[in-house]
Design a protein that fits this description.
By secondary structure, this protein is an alpha+beta fold. It is built from seven helices and eleven strands. The strands form three sheets. Strands 1, 2, 3, 4, 6, 7 and 8 form a seven-stranded mixed sheet that branches. The protein has a two-stranded antiparallel sheet with strand order 5-11. It has a two-stranded antiparallel ribbon with strand order 9-10. β9 and β10 form a beta hairpin. The longest helix is centred in the first third of the chain and has 21 residues.
């Protein structure tokens, strides 16, 4: 069993992204590269050299159609709405033929491989204060959900006795993840409060990573354009510069050297034997 290098993980993530892109173009499903992946496309024309994942966003109607119809020879989609084993409020397209993942914050009840994230974006109030109040309601549920996901940790014979004991304690403390589905439903119901397009703003509400900063005007995503990424072309929301500056400020400036490292150090991806 050999762990993937960062370069190998990027390569398989790119292959998944190519599959998703082809399906979305063929089926007229709107998506955009997002977050660090979009920064990588604009600043590096590919992955940020130390980035270890791929993020895309879709308007909620496109996301739901994608999750219910995506078909690929090599990869699978999982979302709470279409997969009873999923424990995330957004979707992932993953490999389970070549790789498998070990993580101390699991997201699925079954073994799975490397993935890319597919985030639904939802309509947001035009009144920013009201939007902030809704995020404040969701945030405690979201944080509790993140903690309780540790209750679905997978045991492995390759773990030391000490690690196995720690996993057992987390399963007991977090009730084997029993509360997670109900908390997910609560977050998703709040996220889908307004029909997409019924307001003039949108944001990533179902996964509260950026909080009230993830609040944007509709016109930024009214069209998508092609951007280069690792010698291929993928889709990006037309207002990508305003979108990225709102979230990160001067995103073209490299971060300090000490911050140039992968984010998901608690995740390890291995080649299957």
């Amino acid at each position: 069993m050999r762990e993937l290098t960062l370069k190998e993980l990027q390569e398989i993530s790119l292959d998944i992204l190519k599959d998703v892109h082809q399906f979305c173009v063929k089926n007229n499903i709107k998506y955009s590269l997002a977050y660090g992946t979009l920064i990588g496309a604009i600043r590096h024309k590919g992955f940020i050299p130390w980035d270890d994942d791929v993020d895309i966003i879709m308007p909620r109607p496109d996301y739901e159609r994608f999750c219910s119809t995506f078909a690929s020879i090599k990869y699978h989609v999982s979302s709470f709405e279409t997969d009873s084993d999923c424990r995330m409020t957004f979707g992932r397209v993953f490999d389970d033929n070549q790789t498998f993942v070990r993580s101390f914050v699991p997201w699925h009840l079954k073994e799975h491989g490397a993935w890319i994230d597919v985030f639904p974006v939802d309509a947001a109030e035009d009144n920013f204060e009201q939007f902030s109040e809704r995020i404040a309601r969701i945030y405690p549920i979201f944080r509790k959900l993140q903690r309780n996901r540790k209750g679905i940790l997978h045991f492995s014979l390759s773990f030391s006795l000490k690690t196995q004991f720690r996993l057992l304690i987390k399963k007991v403390v977090f009730l084997n993840g029993w509360l997670v589905p109900n908390m997910m439903k609560m977050v998703i119901i709040e996220a889908k409060k307004y029909e997409f397009g019924s307001t003039k703003h949108w944001g990533l509400i179902a996964f509260n990573s950026y909080g009230i900063k993830d609040y944007h005007e509709d016109e930024l995503f009214d069209e998508v354009v092609d951007v280069e990424f690792e010698h291929y072309y993928f889709k990006a929301l037309r207002g990508y510069d305003e979108y990225l500056r709102h979230l990160y400020g001067d995103y073209m400036q490299l971060p300090p050297e000490e911050d140039r490292k992968p984010k998901q150090t608690y995740i390890h991806v291995y080649w299957k034997d």
